Amino acid sequence: MFLKITKEQRQQMITEIQEFFLHERDEEITEFAAESVLNFFKESLAPHFYNTALQDAKHLVEQQILSLEEEIAALERPVKK
Length: 81
Known about the structure:
Blueprint: H1 7-25, H2 31-75
């Protein structure tokens, strides 16, 4: 996937994964193992979240366009025949 993250963001995510395993599973994992988990999420699960976010954005834009069309229509003036 084309997700770009900085080294700092990646390290922060790895640290958060390690903390999650420690607090939720009472299990210490290595940085390498945490990086594997991160790669799994990035490659396998992130596209689902990304696509859902795109659909949400599309729906929001469609609603805004409909609202804008209604506002423009309300500005129209009657034409005498």
